[in-house]
Amino acid sequence: MMGLPPHSEEVEQATLGAVLLGADMDDAEGLTSRDFYRSVHQHIFTAVEELHRKRQIINQFTVAEQLQAMGKLEEVGGRAYLAQLLDYVTGEAFTELVKKVLAYSIKRQMIITLAKHTDKVHSGGDANELLDNAQRDLMAIGADRATAAPETIAATCDGLIDDLESIQAGRRGLGLQTGFAKLDEVTGGLQPGELILLAARPSMGKTALALIIGQNAAVGGKRVLFFSLEQPRKQLALRLLARATGISVSALRSGKLSPEEWEKINDARAQIVGLPLTIDDRSGLHIRDIQRTARRMARDGLGLLVVDYIQLCHGDRAERKDLEVGQISAGLKSLAKDLNIPVLALSQLSREVERRTDKWPQLSDLRESGALEQDADVVCFLYNPNRYTKAVQEHTQAAEVELLVEKNRQGRIGHFKLLWRAWLTSFDNI
Description:
nine-stranded mixed beta sheet, single chain, Rossmann fold, DNAb Helicase, Chain A, 47% helix, 17 helices, 2 domains, alpha/beta
């Protein structure tokens, strides 16, 4: 048989007593009246919150007057109980008391949430959906305390100036640096909370570009999660080895390697294995699977999420594919905001590109959903004109490929060239 919900009356009394004795309410950030177990204490802290909002003095006398105005003074035990609260004050730091009150509150919310989902489990339903809903509700507990508190425009500007000074001093950029100078210049780097779309027709190199961006982020110390829904993880590792060693992908696959080439491979492996890069190559993942895995990894820090590619993800059943893709893009955008990280998602373009004489991709070519253009903060296209020419290039001949930033919610758009080395499946700056 379950007893009373987790709480400590003494901790609550000591916390309120400390407030009445002049503890700094700014040290109680995140604490609200609903975090107290006893309704009497909830009323008292509501009075305290009102006085703090008005920037008035907080002590047993002003709180009594505020409770009187609220019609709650007698209900809490009158002025005598407020005076009694002072006796519970100990030498324990106010911040520690606040943490304890919040901890008890979180435990009570967990019990309520788990009980609700236990009832739903007994009622039946899809197991994966039940698990996802329960995980989402549990993670939402206390989430408002983890997010940044509202701040004045003065404080925001001060923080922005600090950022700009760091950029000028070369200490860092505003966003995650991709390693491609022109792309970073146009976008300011991949921004936390944003959904970045990289779209192209097949065989344009979008997987290779996304993998290099992920590798560069990992080299910079960011933890990267790469969902490869199309290619096995060993193929991606092979590309990383080719780029690091300068040995072509076909030569690596052949296995006919010289002792010198094996030495290069071993040196490259030592560099690659130390990167904080995780590849998930499960196929047919639901957007909930991606969200669940990303949130779990984010507990230990996550700097970039890559999804290759959107049309291979699954959403809930919908009448049309475009509606399902819309669910997926909205889910990725929500995940970017929740985890405060950039999400780089790859997308196929429709065949309309092939039907035009001018093969340059356009926003209208985004395949199967206008929601992709709507949800994305940045939309980039990869265009390799050599794919449409009959000229056969030498195996070791580099080609210029266009990267088009056609949408940038927070900045300008632009077109620039990258160098494509097909035999290494690698892009480089020009």
